[in-house]
Amino acid sequence: MMKLISKQPSKRIFSGIQPTGNLHLGNYLGAIKNWVNLQEEISSIFSIVDLHAITVPQNPLKLKASTREVTAAIIAAGINTEKSILFNQSSVKEHSELAWILNCVCRIGWLNRMTQFKEKAGKNRENATVGLYSYPVLMSADILLYRATHVPVGEDQKQHIELARNIATSFNSMFDSKSKDFFCLPEPQILGPGTRVMSLRDGTKKMSKSDPSDASRINLTDTKDDIFNKIKKAKTDSNPLPATIKELEKRPEASNLLKIYSSLSDEDLQKTLDSFAGKGFSYFKPKLIELAVEILNPISSEMRYLLKDPVEIDKILVKGKGKAQKIAEKVLKDIKNLVGLIH
Ligand code: TYM
């Protein structure tokens, strides 16, 4: 019987975020806000996933700066680096090694179904990098390298986590012939009303870093005036706000702004609707601006403060790398043993 050196934790969180461009309200409400709450109860590992960022062209100097910026944003938003592990992905080489092994488990048919690749590669598919295509395998490696049980993300990552579950199941049956449970199946945690924050210019499009219009998103670095102007100009319809969730279904912009309010205020959507039913956007928008500024302004000021000392940010990342690698090394050794690789 093969002796394993890594332990399956009863609960462990892994999640990641790409260091490309500004973090926006979607990243905050869909991911980071939940990370901050969950870290209190479950031991957590968070990564700035720079290897994912290079699946599309990046400017090397900007990539380093963005990695530090995203690290600062995550800390400013409330991740406690004494309690949780925070590091940049490329500093733990085991991520790439495991991704290769999992490339030999994942089937081409599974990757062909990934909608995010189709969206990102667009019409120019032949010219997309192999990295962009196999990106979900690297994401599976990120999660499985820590034998993570829970993965808090926004809705757009759900399909990738389902793939990680398929890869884990397949690995277990290919290599863990006795118990077939080396990897547990990680659970996506898609929590709260902000799991799919939409563009402020078009309520049917996801808020995204890559939208050419800066007015479509609220960045975590936006000033009070930026937030004011963007929400003031946000697209709406001409009806008063409804009283029920059902009535929001055909009103994408109203639905988005109300969900943002509900998520920022930590109250459920129905309660937000109860407060604003029958009121116009001219009443609601100033309330939303006030709330957004109240929550986001302290994060951006703290972020600017932290960024004044990039050496300290690098130190935090190095400390996180040490802690992450300690776990990753053991798991990868077990995996190599199971696969039959001498190490
Ligand atoms: P990324 O960098 O695109 O986004 C980071 C997190 O923000 C969430 N998010 C949103 N949530 C709500 N509304 C939106 N408009 C919105 N836009 C983004 C994303 O769902 C995500 O949770 N592949 C991942 C990063 C990753 C990862 C991982 C995540 C790499 N390895 C392992 C979890 C586990 C990505 O590109 O996220």
Global geometry: globular
* Secondary structure tally: strands: 5
Low-pLDDT sequence parts: none
**Alpha plus pi helix count:** 14
Query: What share of the residues does DSSP label as strand, in percent?
Result: 5-15%
Give the distinct bound molecules. Answer: tryptophanyl-5'AMP
What's the arrangement of strands in the largest beta sheet? 1-2-3
**Major sheet characteristics:** 3 strands, parallel
Secondary-structure-based class equals: mainly alpha
Mean pLDDT: 96
| N to C succession of SSEs | EHEHHEHHHHEHEHHHHHH
Percentage of helical residues? 40-55%
Round the Cα radius of gyration to an integer and report it. 21 Å
What separation lies between the terminal Cα atoms? 18 Å
Walkthrough of the structure:
This protein is 53% helix and 6% strand. The longest helix is centred in the last third of the chain and has 30 residues, at 310-339. The strands form two sheets. Strands 1-2-3 form a three-stranded parallel sheet. It starts with 12 loop residues before the first strand and ends with a helix. α1 (25-38) links the parallel β1 and β2. It is built from 14 helices and five strands. It is globular. It has 343 residues and is mostly helical. The structure holds tryptophanyl-5'AMP.
